[in-house]
Every structure is written in structure tokens, then in C-alpha cells.
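Dear colleague,

As promised, here are the two records you asked about, laid out in our usual form so they can be pasted straight into your sheet.

NAME FIELD: protein one
SEQUENCE, THEN STRUCTURE:
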Amino acid sequence: MQASVGVRVPTWFSRRRLLEEKLSDLHRCTNLDLVKQIHAQLLKSHLHHDLYVAPKLISAFSLSRSISYAVNVFNQVPHPNVHLYNSIIRAHAHNDSHPSLALATFFDMQRNGISPDNFTYPFLLKACNSYSSLHLVQMIHAHVEKFGFYGDIFVPNSLIDSYSRCGSAGLDGAVKLFLAMEERDVVTWNSMIGGLVKGGELDGASKLFGEMPDRDMVSWNTMLDGYAKAGKMDKAFELFDRMPERNIISWSTMQNKGYSILVFMAEPEPMLTAQATHIPTNAGRSIFVKGTFCKEKVLRDDSCLQALLHICILVVAGTNPASLFIKLETFT
């Protein structure tokens, strides 16, 4: 007689292993229902106050835009450490909570004798994201100076970015910090150039861009966007021509500000970046195209096509649509 083979009942060890597998990617999970299920399992296993598990739960609830659940997880841990405090400060910043909530957590951290580290300040500064936050940024800056966190370049870079987000009033603080820095990386330069562009200081941004020792795609696109938004399309087009390489952001910036990408599918015809304007003729209006040839491949997606159609509509605004014939080649 053949013995029946029973189904193996999961042991405590196998259940724990399954839970640990879920925990490994928990901080990247954005499915709120799944996060709640894992939270319930952690409560049942008495692991919700574990200093390794709790930050992952806070991150998951933060990504799911459920800050109240994240705060609840934090409050259930009797003795939080600096990593846990950083996690909840970051959650407040990520969910656009009022800066006072992140700041209150920061003060509570110090009252409990937990010293901030080099991750605390960048997370805290992310919460200061409006023009009215200048005094908070200045206070955090003073704290950074007092405790000597300039050694980690990520901290002063975050300060420059935060000053720049406070509008023209914060630019002075950003510039002073930039000039005082003994060490700068490409992020430092990009943050300062981006701040000057946002503040309408295009001449200053252009000067700094020219002095920049190493430029990346962000550097070029920041200046390109600044010129385009200021309506200085001649300078934008000149810069666009000088770019050693371009990505979809570069092309979209030019499209959205009055330049179109005309794609000729017949090989070996290259793509043409062109400024489209209308000019009067005896027969009415026609499209005048001025541009430059290139060899790059551009992502041919719906956004590119919509931008091209939008530009065509703007160009012929006020013209009888029946008089305009636009041939669109098949996109492959």
C-alpha cells in the first residue's frame, strides 16, 4: 500500500524567512494594501518596533503617500535612533508636509539626546521648499556651521539648493556659500547655476557656466531652459548647437519654446531641428524653417508628436486651416 505524502506545514522558520524576503524590498514598495498587510504581520510578530524594520515601514508608507501611517510607526518605537529620525524627517519632506513638522521632529531628536548626522540636514532642507522657508534655511545653515558638517559636500550642496528655492531673497546666501566652499563638485555648480536661472540672473548663470570645469547634461539643459524661458531663443539655439550630446529633455525644451523636430524617414536623410515661423507670401502664409542638421536619434513618442502639432497650430494661428497641408510621415 502506497503511503500518502502529506503537505508540509510551514514552520516558524519558513514563515520568518518569507517575511524577511518581503522586508528586503519593503522600503521601495508603493502598494499601500501590501504595505498594510506586511505591517499587520510585523505587529503580530512583535517586529514593528525593530530599529531595522521600522525605517523600512516608514519609507514604504511615505512612498504610498500615507504620512499618518508613517508617523504612527515612528511613535510605536520606544527608543528611536538617528536613522529612524532621519526616516521620518525624510517622509515629511517627501509628502510635502509643513516644514514645521520636520523641524519639530528635528528638535525632538535633540531633546532626546540623539545627535544629527550628515544625512539629517539634507532631509530636513528638502522640507524647506518655498519662498517663506528662508529663515528656516538660515537657521539650519547656522546649525551646520556650528557642528561642522561642511566636510560632507552633500550638506553644503543641499544648502545651496534650498537657498535657491527661496527665490531672489535666498540667492545672496547661496552665492556666499558657493564662494566660501573650498571643494565643489558638478552638483555644486549645477545647483548654483540653477538658482541663478530661477532668480532671473541669466548673465550670472552664463558667467558661471563658462567657468565650470566639468559640465554634465544637467548643466547644459539648465542653461538651455533658462534661455528658452526668458525668450532668448537665439542664445538657446546657439547653446543647443554647442551641446556635445542631447537627451529628450534638451529636445523637448526646444520644442516647447518654439522649435520643432522634423523627422524625415527616408534614409539617409538626417533629422532636422528647426525654428518654425510664418511669413507672408502672395498666396497667403507659408512656414519658414530655419535650423540645423544633426545625427542624433530622438525618442519618437506621443509627446514629441504632440509638441510638433502644437507648434504647427501656433505658427498658423489665424490662418484658414484648409490652406495648410501638413504631411506626417509614419512613425516607426
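NAME FIELD: protein two
SEQUENCE, THEN STRUCTURE:
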Amino acid sequence: MAATHCFFRPASLPLPSCSTHQTQESVRFLYQHRFFRSTHNAWKIRAAGPDLLGDFGARDPFPAEIESNFAENVLGNVSTEHKILIPNASALSLSQQECSPISPLQPPMSIDDAQKILLKVVGWRLLDEEEGLKLQCLWKLRDFKCGVELINRIAKVAEAAGHFPSLHLEQPNQVRAELWTHSIGGLSMNDFIVAAKIDKVKTSDLVPRKRIWA
């Protein structure tokens, strides 16, 4: 089937009379070219004009859409309030928190609560003694000097936190640290915060070196 080509000529561009068929076809092509060019330029001018859709394709709602309360049925209501929230203490890790003053009237932490928070510190265990609950951690070190060095490192952390553990250098190469809040006779959140800070102390250069067998 032969292809059929249709050309549209605007009414404002009358086709002049021509003496020959060839000349008439040439004039027809010229007017068609001018028509498509003028149409293309019109679209270019429209595209360069004011953005009818707004930034990134968004647009203001039409009056009918506002009256229909369409925003009530979609996420992100127009009345939604956006806030930038600063993480509170519960969202921060224990090592990032700071110790707070403890009142002598404050009751000590229960053993159930202590066991839950114990999961957030590494290498510490609970001791239930006559003085109350305590946290205890042991380190096996390379020698006596390494034990002294670890105690000094822990002391710096405790001094910065304002809450001090009981430190003991036992045998030639073992350090024992115990934490509890004396004023309330048991554990407080401060003990776990300092325990988490002590966990950050570098000990890799103080522990015994592992032997590698060939």
C-alpha cells in the first residue's frame, strides 16, 4: 500500500498561484517549512516563559482541590510540622553520656534493671554483696608495668567523668576494677556510664602477646 502524506497549511499563509507544477511544489515546501519553524519557535517561547508547574514539577493546588480537602487523604499534610530533634540521653550510647549528681535519697538500681543495662557494657559482671550491687571487671596483662599503665589510663577516664572506681593491682599482672555508688549503697546509671567509658580504654598494647606457631 502506498504511503499517504498529509500536510497542514495555516489559513494565514495562502498558497500563491504558480505557473508550473514544479514551482508550485517548491513554494508548498517553503510554506510548510516556515509553518513548522514558526510552530517550533512558539513552543520554545512558551518553554522559556514562566514555569506553570513550579520548581521540580510541583504546582500549587487548584481551588477545587483545596475545597475537596484532598490533603487530608495523603501523607504529608500541609499542616505537618517538621522538626530537627537533638538525640536525648536514651538514644546515645553509654560511653557518650555524662555522669549526673546522685542524691543520697535516690534508691539504688534493682538487680533486674542492672541486668538489662549490663548488656551494654563489655567484660563486666554483677556482684551482689553486703554493700549492695557492684560492677566488676578483670584484666590479665603482660607484666607489672602494664598493670600500672592500665590503672593510670583508667584513672584519667574516671577523673574526667567525675565518678571513681575502686582499682586493685593483684598478683604481678592482673587489674581489678569495681564500680558502685557509695552514697546510695548500690548501683546507679553513673556506674554503667563509667564502665562503658573504661571499655574504650586502649589495652591491646598491654595484654600478653599471642604466640604464633609456624
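A couple of things worth noting about protein two: The chain has a mean pLDDT of 76. The chain is about 30% helix and 10% strand.

Best,
R.
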